[in-house]
Design a protein that fits this description.
The protein is an all-alpha fold. Among the domains are: 35-69; 72-102; 103-114 and 130-159, no CATH class. Helix content is 53%, strand content 0%.
């Protein structure tokens, strides 16, 4: 009993913390063994595939090992088809907008806001204004130029320096008031 106090020391092999560390190291070693066994199995399969390719004589083993590089990624053709359809729909929408005289750039701006990335599924129900890279977008419409993304008087507005209550209107009001 003279050395019983050593059981409570951090460096003693029977302390709970050291037992946990030992257990975790054993589990890690088991995982590493399994990983090495899986890698060995994959290597054996690849060697067997090379051997069969060499027996068939169809092509070199090196060409067979990199053939996946030349295959199209899965889903690429469907993605390209969807992009073509979206481009055609956009052209039709622009043609319709030109025929009716509606500003189509507003719809494009709002569509960019709609596709902007959101953090997490919870944000789908929230009415948020995302800030995509390079182009800060806002859900506002200018009173002067009638475009989306800025307010009247902002420096992005092409009509920011135009006064809606210009001096010619004020002068005509004063002339009418002075005549009475």
């Amino acid at each position: 009993m003279a050395l019983a106090y050593l059981n409570g020391k951090s460096y003693h092999p029977t302390s709970q913390h050291n037992q946990e560390l030992k257990w975790m190291a054993e589990k890690g070693a088991e995982r590493e063994q399994k990983r090495q066994a899986e890698l060995q199995r994959q290597r054996d399969e690849e060697v067997e595939r090379f051997r069969l390719a060499k027996q068939r004589g169809g092509g070199s083993a090196a060409a067979a090992s990199v053939s996946f590089l030349y295959a199209l990624p899965p889903g690429l053709l469907e993605l390209q088809q969807r992009e073509r359809e979206a481009a055609e729909a956009k052209k039709e929408a622009l043609a319709d907008a030109a025929a009716t005289g509606v500003d189509a750039t507003e719809d494009e701006t709002l569509a960019r806001i709609k596709r902007a990335p959101k953090a997490g599924e919870y944000a789908n129900e929230l009415d948020i204004t995302p800030q995509p890279f390079v182009t800060p977008l806002r859900k506002v419409r200018c009173v002067r130029c009638k475009k989306h993304g800025h307010k009247s008087g902002d420096r992005e507005c092409p009509l920011k320096d135009d006064n809606p209550n210009g001096t010619h209107q004020r002068a005509s009001r004063h002339n009418v008031a002075g005549a009475n």
